[in-house]
Design goal:
By secondary structure, the chain is an alpha+beta fold. Helices cover about 35% and strands about 15% of the residues.
Length: about 270
């Protein structure tokens, strides 16, 4: 017996042993392996019987040609010889009439299973967890971050408490390696209370960067474009000192005075 076979026999035994009898009707243990011989199936059936749980054989009607094609992307140390794949497929097909006699309570084909309901239930459970409706803390304020930029950004997201870069709005940073972006969480982007995010960019009117320039960030694509410099000339850029592109003819000192007055007013 190989180490893999031994491990696959041990895991179901341990999992079933830890399940309390009253949970038997609520839990399913799925064994995903190439159990195409009676010798490999017998310990699994015996484990189910010892713990008073039904043993159900699920057969996957995948054509042998597809099984062969799935070998192509695998690394060399995980590739199964073609002859072995063909032999396993043949053994699986021939085992079908014998499975009930081996002790399985039921034999079903995977394409006959009701799969949409459990799929939707898993999605619903995940959503409830995100919202904190499952008794947990949920994502809280990070829910909007994920909705706009995707789940992959969440581990990089760090709020910057006390930052005044966004004129009183909350500031965050995402950093990976030597690169980073600064973002502002806007709570009234349209004057009607809608939420959104801005990403910090170089001011197109001032190389000395005496103020903060921002442009809307609607998705993770905007973040990639901002970091690549593709938004540096965006017409949506607004600088805290120079204003937007339509204000470029105004004197920088006038903008600076306005910014100082606004800052002083928000501090009172």
């Amino acid at each position: 017996m190989s180490c893999t076979q031994g491990l696959f026999r041990l895991i179901p035994e341990q999992a079933l042993r830890r399940s309390r009898p009253q949970e038997a009707e609520q839990k399913n243990l799925t064994g995903n392996a190439t159990n195409v011989t009676p010798e490999t199936r017998a310990p699994l059936v015996a484990a189910a019987k010892r713990h008073n749980m039904p043993a159900v054989a699920v057969m996957v009607s995948t054509p042998v040609s597809v099984c062969m094609e799935r070998q192509a992307p695998r690394p060399a140390n995980r590739t199964v010889p073609d002859d072995t794949v063909r032999a396993q497929h043949t053994a699986m097909v021939r085992s079908h009439p014998k499975l009930l006699a081996e002790g399985f309570n039921e034999v079903v084909f995977s394409d006959s299973l009701c799969q949409l309901l459990p799929f939707l239930q898993r999605l619903g459970d995940a959503r409830n967890a995100d919202l904190g409706l499952d008794g947990g803390g949920g994502l809280g304020e990070m829910l909007l971050v994920r909705r706009v930029f995707g789940a992959e950004v969440l581990p990089l997201w760090r709020w910057k408490p006390g930052s005044t870069a966004a004129g009183g709005d909350r500031v965050a940073e995402i950093r990976l390696g030597q690169q980073h972006l600064t973002l502002a969480f806007r709570t009234n982007v349209d004057g009607q209370g809608d939420y959104g995010f801005d990403v910090a960019l170089p001011c197109p009117h001032d190389d000395e960067r005496i103020g903060y320039a921002w442009a809307p960030a609607y998705s993770v694509t905007c973040l990639a474009r901002a970091l690549a410099g593709e938004l540096d000339d965006s017409e949506d850029i607004v600088c805290s000192v120079h204003g937007g592109l339509n204000d470029a003819d105004q004197e920088p000192d006038d903008h600076a005075d306005e910014a100082l007055r606004e800052t002083a007013g928000s501090a009172r």
